[in-house]
Design a protein that fits this description.
Strands 6, 8, 9, 10, 11 and 12 form a six-stranded mixed sheet that branches. A three-stranded mixed sheet has the order 1-4-13, with no helix packed on it. Strands 2-3 form a two-stranded antiparallel ribbon. By secondary structure, it is an alpha+beta fold. The two termini are about 25 Å apart. The chain is globular, with a radius of gyration of 17 Å. The protein has a single domain, classed as Muramoyl-pentapeptide Carboxypeptidase, domain 2 (2-Layer Sandwich), CATH 3.30.1380.10.
Length: about 250
């Protein structure tokens, strides 16, 4: 485990890289890097009802390529966060919904990939889909991209609702990882039904012990996260948290 020297100025760390920075580290704060996955689990082992669409393993994301560190299309989380999410999943299943996961634990290598992508102003392949209202050169300035992510602490998840009666995702009035005001949960441009859907997800997650983000309807962090100052570096793959059978 590596301890990073104390910071001399505040840094803003974006949890999903799609909205204004929301986690400010005060001056003189310390944080650690770790490759210890012993407290992590494969999410589907704990919450078998979730549906996975791990966007950063695919090419359908704001980068347009598979993101570094995503070696398998799986979701990993701390045991504490996965257990809390199981309770949320069970409560929503009674109402006819399943949880669909876009991202959970995100290794530091992936964050570094985002930073490199943001610096390449010529690569705007995914602009029409994820940031049509913005020029790429403002992403750092406006806090959409940063050097660290709350996801790397292992207790943050990006997700939506899947309606079991229709066999479709619930209409949230906006896509995951959209850079703009439409992603704010209370954006007044969505329909009453879309707003209601956002609040069903939000209320269930808050009741389950997660904190919402004012700028992203899909993003939630476990309130009592076990590693508030540690950023993990191991890759996203089952083998990172499961021992090989002898």
């Amino acid at each position: 485990m590596t301890t990073i020297p104390k910071l001399t100025t505040p840094l803003f760390f974006l949890a999903s890289f799609t909205t204004l920075a929301t986690l400010c580290f005060a001056a003189d704060a310390e944080y650690k890097l770790s490759d210890d996955a012993s407290d992590f689990v494969v999410l589907t082992d704990v919450v078998p009802d979730v549906i996975l669409e791990i966007r950063y393993y695919s090419t359908y994301n704001f980068v347009g390529d598979r993101v570094d560190g995503y070696e398998e299309p799986v979701a990993l989380m701390t045991k504490e966060a996965a257990t809390a999410l199981k309770e949320v999943s069970d409560s929503l299943k009674e109402r006819g919904y399943r949880l669909k996961i876009y991202d959970a634990y995100r290794p530091q290598k992936a964050v570094a990939h985002f930073v490199r992508w943001a610096a390449d102003l010529d690569d705007v392949r995914m602009k029409p889909y994820f940031y049509p209202e913005l020029n790429k050169d403002v992403l750092f300035e406006q806090g959409y991209i940063a050097e660290h992510s709350g996801h790397s602490r292992g207790s943050t998840v990006d997700l939506t609702l899947f309606d079991m009666s229709t066999g479709k995702e619930v209409d949230m009035g906006g896509t995951f990882d959209y850079f703009g005001l439409r992603s704010h949960p209370d954006f007044d441009g969505v329909t009453p039904e879309q707003y209601k859907n956002r609040m069903i997800l939000r209320d269930a997650m808050v009741k389950g012990g997660f904190l919402p983000l004012d700028e992203e309807w899909w993003h939630f962090r476990l309130k009592n996260e076990p590693y508030p100052d540690t950023y993990f570096t191991f890759p996203v793959k089952k083998g990172a948290v499961q021992r090989e059978e002898e």
